[in-house]
Design a protein that fits this description.
Helix content: 25-40%
Radius of gyration: 17 Å
Number of helices: 3
Distance between the termini: 22 Å
Oligomer: single chain
Shape: elongated
Order of helices and strands: EHEHEEEHEEE
Number of domains: 2
Structural class: alpha/beta
Strand content: 25-35%
Largest sheet: 4 strands, mixed
């Protein structure tokens, strides 16, 4: 679960970043707006939560809830996105894979903080659109 100031925006970012999709509304509703209207949820509460799912059904559902308080300090959840084939390929090939994914994520709004590299590993550290740190390796 992620705390977010704008759950819909952060959910859409991570849906793109993880190749997930926004969770569909419950059966019988064409959209979440239709469902929320039917449930008589006040419109000002419509963006109080969102969720994304793996379209293949293999990965976990990720839930985003609205929090009005600002993020204080380091986030408690740190996601590492695996963009390379790991130790099965050379470090140079891994760097190419990671940098390609890093470029894609930058276009989604992620902000690169730094690159970490030694003779065996390579990763790029980012901030998501809400200021949460995550890595691409």
């Amino acid at each position: 679960m992620f705390d977010a100031q704008d759950p819909d925006r952060l959910a859409k970012f991570y849906a793109e970043a993880l190749h997930y999709k926004l969770q569909d509304p419950q059966e019988g509703f064409n959209s979440w707006q239709d469902a929320l209207k039917a449930w008589k949820v006040p419109e000002e509460e419509w963006n109080s939560a969102s969720a994304i799912i793996d379209p293949d059904g293999k990965g976990p559902r990720i839930y985003f809830q609205q929090m009005d308080t600002p993020k204080l300090g380091k986030n408690r959840l740190h996601i590492d996105l695996n963009a390379s084939k790991g130790s099965m390929v050379s470090l140079e090939e891994r760097k190419e894979d990671v940098n390609r994914e890093a470029e894609r994520l930058s276009k989604l709004g992620a902000k690169e903080l730094r690159k970490l590299e030694d003779d065996r590993e390579y990763c790029v550290v980012f901030l998501d659109i809400d200021g949460n740190e995550f890595c691409v390796q």
